[in-house]
Structure prediction request, 87 residues.
Amino acid sequence: MNQYQREELNLISQSLLSILLISIFAYCISFISNTFPWQSLLGFGIGLSIIVICWIGRRSYVFISFLLLYTVVYSIAYNFSAFFSVH
Prediction:
């Protein structure tokens, strides 16, 4: 395996890890309360990205960007009925 393949595999694994972390956390906190606590999900995503930036730095820009992107996506997805009233 050459260097290019290792870098690509690293980027793919970073993106999948961030998607899995956010989706599992969103799924678990949806069972805790009747209404979805989107503030907790946003706090988790932003807080984890700040921690990763402080510890690792710019090497994990894919992880941070996917983490923030899917934090917003899952916040909207789980609160879709609150944002848009569907009759």
